[in-house]
Amino acid sequence: MKVSRFLSGGREGWAVKNPATGLWHGCTQEDPQYPGSVDSLIKTDPGALVSACEFMVQKPALDLSEMQLLTPLGQAPKIICVGLNYTDHSTESGFEQPDYPTLFSRFNTSLIAHDEPIIYPALSNTLDYEGELAVIIGKPGKCISRAHALDHVLGYSVFNDGSVREYQFKTPQWIMGKNFDGTGAFGPCLVTADELPAGASGLKLETRLNGQTVQSANTQDMVFDVESLIVTISEVMRLEAGDVIVAGTPAGIGHAREPKLYMKPGDVCEVEIEGIGLLRNRVQHAGLA
C-alpha cells in the first residue's frame, strides 16, 4: 500500500492508493469516520494502519494534486541517519570505509514534505543534496536479531538529507550541518514493506538536480543493509513505532565534485527510488514565501 498525508482546507487527512485503479482514497480528520492519524495508528499496533487502509480505500477518490502533501509521518520519535553507507561515497568523501555504521540524528524541525521548499541558509552557500532510502519502523523492539529485523519494518520512503557542508565539518560531530531548518526532505508517501523486495534491496536510487542526474545507485550496494542497521541500532536503544532510519547516500554529492556543485536558490532537486516514488523540492532563500 502507498499512504500519503495531506492538508486540505487547513484540515489534515490521509489517503491510500488503490493498486487496481491507481486512484487515491481517503478523508480528513473532520470526517466522522476518520480512523485516526497515520502516526497514532502506527503507534497503536503494527496492523492498525493496514486495517485502516482497507477502510480508507472505500472512501471517495481524491485528487492529491490539489492537496498540500505532508511528510509521511507527523512527528517521528527518532530520526537516525547513516553516514558512509556506500563505499563509493566514502571514497569520494575522503573517508576510509568504516566497519561500524556512522550514525547521527536529525530532528523534526529540519523536515519538509514533497513540493515544499528546501531552505537555502543565510549562513552558508554550501547546501548539498543526498538522496537516500528512509526506513519506517512499525514494531518496537530492543536487541532485535537479524532473523527478525525486517519484521519490525512497516515501510519505506524517500529522503533528501540536505547538508550544509561548512557546518557539517566545523566539528567531528555532523549534527549541526545536518539539521538546518527546512533542509531534510521526506516523502512523497509511505510504501508498506510488502510492496517491495525484502529490505528494499535491489531498488534504483537516483538524484537529479535541475534535470541532470547527479547520483545513480542501487540500494543493494549499501554497506550496512536494513537488517544490519536495525540490529546495530537496537543493541543500544529501543526502536519505537514511527522511528525513521535514513540509510545513507551514494556517490555523486556536490561537495566531492570539482568545481563544487552546491544547491542554490531556484534549483529543483529530485530524488527517486524505484517502487517508492519521486520526491521533488525547489530551493529558496530563507524568509521568502
Can you give a write-up of this model?
This protein is mainly β. Strands 1, 2, 3, 4, 5, 6, 7, 8, 11, 12, 14 and 17 form a twelve-stranded mixed beta sheet that branches. A five-stranded mixed beta sheet has the order 9-19-18-15-16, with no helix packed on it. The model has no long low-confidence stretch (mean pLDDT 96).
Question: In terms of topology, how is this protein built?
Answer:
Blueprint: E1 2-8, E2 11-17, E3 24-28, H1 38-44, H2 48-56, E4 61-62, E5 68-69, E6 79-83, H3 87-92, E7 102-106, E8 111-112, E9 118-120, E10 127-128, E11 131-137, E12 153-161, E13 163-164, H4 165-168, E14 184-192, E15 204-209, E16 212-218, H5 226-236, E17 244-246, E18 268-273, E19 277-285
Parallel strand pairs: 6-17, 8-14, 9-19
Antiparallel strand pairs: 1-2, 1-5, 1-14, 2-3, 3-4, 6-7, 10-13, 11-12, 11-17, 12-14, 15-16, 15-18, 18-19
- Tell me the CATH superfamily of the largest domain: Fumarylacetoacetase-like, C-terminal domain
Strand and helix order: EEEHHEEEHEEEEEEEHEEEHEEE
Number-wise, the strands total 19
Instruction: Tell me what the CATH architecture of the largest domain is.
Output: Alpha-Beta Complex
Return the domain count. 2
Mean pLDDT figure: 96
CA radius of gyration: 18 Å
Outline:
globular
Strand count, sense and barrel status of the largest sheet are:
12 strands, mixed
Roughly how much helix do the residues carry, as a percent range? Answer: 10-25%
Q: What is the fold named in CATH at topology level of the largest domain?
A: Fumarylacetoacetate hydrolase, domain 2
Low-confidence stretches: none
